[in-house]
Amino acid sequence: GAVVSQHPSRVICKSGTSVKIECRSLDFQATTMFWYRQFPKQSLMLMATSNEGSKATYEQGVEKDKFLINHASLTLSTLTVTSAHPEDSSFYICSAHRDRANEQFFGPGTRLTVL
Amino acid sequence: KQEVTQIPAALSVPEGENLVLNCSFTDSAIYNLQWFRQDPGKGLTSLLLIQSSQREQTSGRLNASLDKSSGRSTLYIAASQPGDSATYLCAPGSGNTGKLIFGQGTTLQVKP
Asked: Shortest CA distance to A81 belongs to which of A73, A97, A91?
């Protein structure tokens, strides 16, 4: 159990377009999900905490109007990168928090390339 | 603000060796601590979860210890294999939402 999926796994887009990434917990409900980004050869940087039914909490330095997060149900959170630019190219990873064990389970990640 | 340091940053060992990866964190008010494995270009695989009230957890050849008061955790890998080659990440969690802060990781290479 405790599987988290992300879609798409890879996306290439043009500068100025918006890209939506989905994160789903497949076999458990997640009140809280997290979004991270990872640059090559670097560790994961927490971007925001996504709470079901309420606004996301963004980490310092992360533009909330740039990275829109919606957590519409207990199994789905979405991250939309608006007006993407090449510097937004990165590996985006989500995780879902399972309350029972206070443990996070991670998705396989989405590789975003902005041309 | 929680800061996490992992030592060494990289490690190369021959197959069969036992090894220890170190993790230290500045804020000892943690709820739990997780160790993860990441293969190149892939997501994270959870290896071990230690609750703040626990001292260690074991899974197969892996053993993780936690000394919350001194802000330290170690991951012990017994009888290393080439398949263990990956980056290992330590992440203490705070609060009941499980917010994780990651270290920079230790990149392990096990040579056949």
From this structure: A91
